[in-house]
Amino acid sequence: MLNFTAIDFETANSYRGSPCSVGLVKVRAGTIVDERHWLIRPPEPVDWFEPFNVSLHGISPEMVADAPRWEIALPGILDFIGGDIVVAHNAGFDIGVIRYACAVDNIPWPDLRFLCTLVLARHTLRLPSYRPRHRRQHHRHRHPPRHRRTAIHPQHRARQDLLAKHPKSPGPMAPRLTDETPVATHVRHMSRLITRWS
What is the spatial order of strands in the sheet that 4-11 belongs to? Predict the structure, then answer.
């Protein structure tokens, strides 16, 4: 059962259908076997970058100037996924990116099977709530705010989240992941959650 493709999107602005980057990791029998990363130019009607989003992921309009538009990038993403279940943390966001970007481009959105590790974790593990009221009580002094980026908390990017790729590495495909990389550890945790749930 531990065969899936993990996905993570970054968006250019507050509109969910403005993808500017995607990272994908293919897992077979709980082991990472392949990975991809694409920069994406958002659909034309929503092709602008908000400073807040850029501050999160560090992707600028100049970086995606020569990247394929969403409707051109989508077939490659779907080809990589194939018939896999798509796994994401907070999958509602990633599903929304696909759905709203397709709506903006007036193209059908693909029929994908999603599994959300956030939902799995909430059902499988006994964790405190991370809603604002509880976050203030339990985490105000223990953790920096999510969007305050420091040397310890680097910019949030699809390529770093799923591919553990060095930001200055060239090319669309990341180097192979090792068992020691953070994403390999994350995928192993996702695999354990999926095993518990199945």
Answer: 31-39, 19-28, 4-11, 86-88, 114-116
**In this structure, which topology does domain 4-197 adopt according to CATH?**
Nucleotidyltransferase; domain 5 (3.30.420)
Distance CA 189, CA 198 (A): 14
Q: Do 118 and 89 form a contact (C-beta atoms < 8 A)?
A: yes
Tens digit of pLDDT per residue, the chain (198 long)? 589 999 999 999 999 999 999 999 999 988 899 999 999 999 999 999 999 999 999 999 999 999 999 999 999 999 999 999 999 999 999 999 999 999 999 999 999 999 998 888 887 777 666 666 644 544 444 433 444 333 333 445 554 555 443 333 333 333 344 444 444 555 556 666 665 555
